Amino acid sequence: MSRDRLAAARASFLKVVYNNFAELLVSSIQEGIERLNANVHQISTLHGRIMNTIDSGQSHDNAQLDQLAAETRTLINSLKDRIKTLERAPLGADTQMRRNRLTFVRSKFLEALQNYQRVEQEYRVKSRQRVERQLKIVKSDATPEEVAAAVEGGGQQIFAQALTTSSRYAEGRMAYREVQERQTEIKKMEETLAELAQLFIDMGTLVEQQEETIVAVEQTAMKVEEDTGKATEQTWKAVLSASPVSH
Q: What single string gives the DSSP state of each residue in 115-169?
């Protein structure tokens, strides 16, 4: 087998390998996105249960929520890495097909992230409202500044004063415990939302890098085609000038 035929066979083989790898990778990304959406739905369900449960029933749901949030974080990072792998794989001649494939899985991933972001934002709003209600149980005239401080992890002095009043000790203690739990949840939500915001930035950067790569490959292909055309034209000119017909 000649060197040219060997190179052509090798290129054909590598193209088949890449296409099979890409298809498997796309399938795994799609399956991961489906699992991500299922996790987010379950997280939303747990949010609702926690907001509607008093004291003793919350601990199990909170533990389940923490575990599911950790699994979802790991899954999101895995999906991001898989999309990176797909984007960094060698480009072939079918750049448009690859562009379509990348656009599809990337858009579905971002759509799932946006849904997760919305769920967390809604839970944060409800948790803040819950803190405000609990604070006003012990101090009905609490100012917006005092409410904001309680949301951010403060408010201990207000509850301490309520706990010193024997007639309001029980409700003050229950309200304070609820606020402490909500403060912890709000901190976790802020961390999750910050991570999601960074992911959107990372994905935007990947899009820009991939577009630059594809454009460069397309320009190179056009240049090769143009050079090939010029070379062919020069060859024909040489052939015609050397032909007896031209003399």
A: HHHHHHHHHHHHHHHHHHHHHHHH-TT--HHHHHHHHTT--HHHHHHHHTSGGGH
Classify residue 246 by its DSSP letter: G
- The residue count of the chain comes to 247
Predicted structure pTM score: 0.70
Structure tokens at 239: 């052939």
> What is the rounded distance in angstroms from the CA atom of residue 25 to the CA atom of residue 22?
5
Largest CA distance in the chain: 120
Here the tokens at position 55 are 């004291």
Torsion of CA 13, 16, 19, 23, to 10 degrees: -130
Could you tell me the CA-to-CA distances from 197 to 32, 91, 219 in Å, in that order? 20, 29, 33
User: How many Å is the Cα radius of gyration of the chain?
Assistant: 30
pLDDT in tens, 197-232: 998 888 876 555 555 544 544 454 445 445 544 554
Q: Evaluate if residue 113 carries a pLDDT over 70.
A: yes
Encoded amino acid at 226, one letter? E
The confidence score (pLDDT) of residue 115 equals 95
Q: Which of 64, 72, 82, 67 is nearest to 40 (CA)?
A: 72
At 111, list the tokens. Answer: 């759509």
